[in-house]
Amino acid sequence: MQVAIIGTGYVGLPTGVGLAELGHNVVCIDNDESKLAKLKNCELTIYEHGLQELLEKHLNKGNISFTASMKEGLLDANLVVVAVGTPPHKDTNEADLQYVYAAAQELAPYLNSYCVVAIKSTVPVGTGDEVEEIIRKINPQASYDVISLPEFLREGYAVYDFFHPDRIVVGADSIKAYSLISKLYEPLLATSTNTKMLCVSRRSSETIKYASNSFLALKIHFINEMADFCEQTGANINEVASGMGLDHRIGRNFLKPGPGFGGSCFPKDTMALEHMAQKYEVNLSLVKATLNGNQSRIDNMAKRLVTVAKEICDEPIVGILGLAFKNGTDDCRFSPAMQIVEDVLKLDPKIVIRVFDPKAMENAQFILQEYADRIIYVKNANEVSHSADVLAILTEWPEFSQINLNYCASKMRNKIILDYRNMISIRRAHELGFSYSCIGMGTDDLHQQQLSRPL
Ligand code: UDX
């Protein structure tokens, strides 16, 4: 099948490469010439595990190509996938659809024979109707169907998720369009027995994406509130989450407490859903509570860190582990870690930060330029500890659980760990004389942990 993908970001690029691996001929279209030059040269513009190898394979085979020309990209296309960004509007927080509308306007003149236009960008309910209308006005002769084909790829795991989706949701009101999408994913469905393909109306499909992300965000917010509860009652959130997760109706996933959720999807999509609800005069009280609660949590995490640091000395050095919004990515957009770093620096002008992240240092350095004189970017996790008074773990990179605590203990000025991702062995931290605190455990429980209770 001949596929054109508009947008080469975190969604468009892994989708394009994945479809090439399924045997399709893919042309990726983007208006950023510098990005295109890199991609043509097999240089990735984002970090995604496993993407580099697949891109190289299909560039060499000639199954994937890159262009800035809509005309060239759409030549003979059976399917056009719109995978451009829908960031929150800077004033209203609703999804900003300017790039989706622009894509629709630009692609419309080049629809020569029957083509499916699939919207993969996360868009408000009803956007499919608008895109259909835009195309019709520009090219009334065109034979096409506009469908919703939401993505559920996690950043950092996008390649894995592409080949192992739980479901492929197709929002199509035309059998012809649905058949084309079935054919597109036929090679994947043949091998991935756990994947379900679901055909629903376009509006239901658009809603499924928002409802799914908001529900997951709510689940995280719930476990974070339970963590607060455990801190006061002396229960242990890790044990509580394990006990809850064993109930299949609840499930284990998305029950990890932390400093709050972030990233380019959960904050943006919950905000956009709340905005839509206001428009339709529906009270989505849980979505509202999730949004506000998550923001307060991030603020409180920064305040907690400043309080701990300032109790020790007037000019503390804070070692930070993690800047990306989660592990496995270099993405710092809406990262709780980034917000905490910024808040800490704003809350106290005497604090200096030493920081390390395995992938996100470059992106973070760019965003945090105005604080350049108070942030020291170091080369590895252990170096964060040099002369530090507090060590704070903000992103759940697995390697942080393996940090050399012995080394840190010998290098730190004061031995305090604030573990916002519950990653460090409590027993080990105590053995080395650290004052250790984490999320969702009262102090009593932390001491009991040293007894290594069998779970
Ligand atoms: C999400 C959805 O999971 C994906 O299906 C969708 O298409 C895009 O948005 P992503 O933003 O890549 O993916 O990240 P995800 O892995 O879902 O994590 C989001 C945030 O929640 C991160 O900040 C992460 O640290 C946090 N999180 C996640 C927790 O705090 N606890 C958890 O148990 C899970």
Q: Would you kindly provide a written description of the structure presented here, covering whatever features stand out?
A:
- By secondary structure, this protein is an alpha/beta fold.
- The strands form three sheets. A six-stranded parallel β-sheet has the order 3-2-1-4-5-6, sandwiched between helices. Strands 11-10-9-12-13-14 form a six-stranded parallel β-sheet.
- The mean pLDDT is 95.
- Helix 9 runs parallel beside helix 12.
Per-chain topology:
Elements lengths: L1 E5 L5 H10 L3 E5 L3 H8 L10 H11 L2 E4 L2 H5 L4 E4 L15 H10 L7 E5 L7 H12 L5 E5 L9 H6 L3 E5 L3 H17 L4 E5 L1 H32 L3 H9 L20 H14 L5 H28 L4 E5 L14 H12 L4 E5 L4 H7 L7 E3 L12 E4 L11 H7 L4 E4 L6 H6 L3 E4 L4 H7 L6
Parallel strand pairs: 1-2, 1-4, 2-3, 4-5, 5-6, 7-8, 9-10, 9-12, 10-11, 12-13, 13-14
Helix pairs in contact: 1-3, 5-6, 9-11, 9-12, 11-12, 12-13
Bound molecules: uridine-5'-diphosphate-xylopyranose.
